[in-house]
Amino acid sequence: MSQISVPSHFDYRMEVHVQNADIRSATVVGGIFVSHVTYASLIPMVDKVFDGFLEHFSWSKSNIAGANIIVPKLEVDYRSEAREGERLDWQVAVTNLGRKSCDLIFFVTKIPEREEVATVKISLVFYDYKARKTLEIPKEFRERFSE
């Protein structure tokens, strides 16, 4: 099992309140009832925070510093359950800047206790859909997040 490295510096922060629609409930083996955020609801949360990150820098998924992206990979390391009514602190860092790709690390903790909920990594590949080929990371993006 992989373990996602948590960076020491983050580029963006967003608070997300866990809503009833974000949780999944079930009775599991042994008759125990569980109700918490699962992979099915975590992915839309990642998408929401990613949108917030992009908007913070005046970008969108269809125009990141003049380029499009593909997200070919998503990894999640779960650490604890998040339940309805809890507040989650999402911190986002841009890491592993390559020639045509980079990673975004999302570090999720509960507010106020700072208990780690999950670490998420998505890989971004910059892409030209018209030419159907990968692109170099735009200069504006690279300069903003150079390590």
UniProtKB/TrEMBL annotation:
SUPFAM superfamilies per UniProt: Thioesterase/thiol ester dehydrase-isomerase
Record-linked PANTHER family: 4-HYDROXYBENZOYL-COA THIOESTERASE FAMILY MEMBER, NOVEL THIOESTERASE SUPERFAMILY DOMAIN AND SAPOSIN A-TYPE DOMAIN CONTAINING PROTEIN (0610012H03RIK)
Keywords linked to the UniProt accession: Hydrolase
The protein's name: Thioesterase
Top-rank taxon: Bacteria
MF GO annotations: fatty acyl-CoA hydrolase activity
UniProt similarity note: Belongs to the 4-hydroxybenzoyl-CoA thioesterase family.
Organism: Leptospira fletcheri
InterPro entries xrefs: 4-hydroxybenzoyl-CoA_TE, HotDog_dom_sf
